[in-house]
Amino acid sequence: MKILCIALFASLLAAPLQSQQGRLCKGNPDLVGQCFKVHGRVRIVNGTGMVIWRIGTDRILGVEDEEIIPDNLSKALFRYDKEWGSDVYGDFEVCPFTKSKPEEMQMVCVESASHLVVKKPVASPTHGN
User: Fold this and answer.
1) Rounded to whole angstroms, how far apart are CA atoms 115 and 84?
2) What are the φ and ψ backbone dihedral angles of 8, each rounded to 5 degrees?
3) Do residues 75 and 113 make contact, with C-beta atoms less than 8 angstroms apart?
4) Strand 49-54 to strand 36-45: parallel, antiparallel, or no bridges (unpaired)?
5) Cβ neighbours of residue 26 under 8 Å, at least 6 residues apart?
6) Which of 16, 54, 82, 88 is the Cys-Cys partner for 42 at CB 3.0 to 4.6 Å?
7) Residues 58-102: pLDDT tens digits?
8) Is residue 58 part of a domain?
9) pLDDT tens, position by position, 35-45
10) Which range of residues forms the domain containing residue 29?
């Protein structure tokens, strides 16, 4: 009985760790470089998913794992539109999964988001608002 209790206790401790494995941003073993900060706009794009436009540039960053974005960004993004999301402007710390190359979207994860400003989506015939 004692062994069964110890085994059960050990499996309960391991469960939260297993559910978080592979869901890291900063510290993820698949990163190819240092995390960096950008000022930009996050948006959900049909066919691409979540992207960050680096304001002042023509660079777009693709968010590789949308499920591990910070809670405050998730709440801001889906504040007005639960399906497509809103435009969210702010400062983001991102970590690269791919190297930056001209004419290619760099893939990143979002470690943190601050100074968020949410812009309500504009109604359009294809957007449904």
Assistant:
1) 21
2) -65, -45
3) no
4) antiparallel
5) 35, 93, 95, 111
6) 88
7) 999 999 988 889 999 999 998 877 777 789 999 999 999 999 999
8) yes
9) 999 999 999 88
10) 24-119
